[in-house]
């Protein structure tokens, strides 16, 4: 099975500006593995911003959430460019797959668990956040397990990595505007519920697909 077939399909990868940035990075002393590690640093910064939001109110609450949304997108850009620099830039390394996967398993929990700290007024937020982080890791585990059994990589959702991060980004930005209607974190709390439910459904769909494919191939 080719590496390309196990690559997450992303339309943004075809955009000219993204290709130019990836080409620019490829021509510099920048490795895909460095970009992958940088994604964890952005996720840690986003998580720190979310935790800081939990100890803030008013304008500071909004500021931290906007910063968290920005860090989430920077993390995703790193996830995009590490693969493009590796594949299109011809900088693949034997250990590249480790750097491609392990940082994601760290970055997801950093951001999702931090959402629980951002909502101290919601007792359920913390366990929702931990459950969401666990399910996020499980979605990836099922995909990788399928590949190890000879199946094509399954990136189906409804709450794959891109959808999870898009949900958190939108929730952070919308929550930053809650002062307009005197809100107090309801949007981020609801986003956690959606993330948990969507991630659980994603796990079930990937497991069922793997089961069916393995049975058909047996």
TrEMBL record:
Pfam families: CDP-OH_P_transf. InterPro entries: CDP-OH_P_trans, CDP-OH_PTrfase_TM_dom. Keywords: Membrane, Transferase, Transmembrane, Transmembrane helix. GO terms for biological process: phospholipid biosynthetic process. One of its GO terms (cellular component) is membrane. The keyword Protein biosynthesis does not apply. It comes from the Bacteria. The chain crosses the membrane at residues 35-55, 125-144, 165-181, 187-208. GO terms for molecular function: phosphotransferase activity, for other substituted phosphate groups. This is CDP-alcohol phosphatidyltransferase family protein.
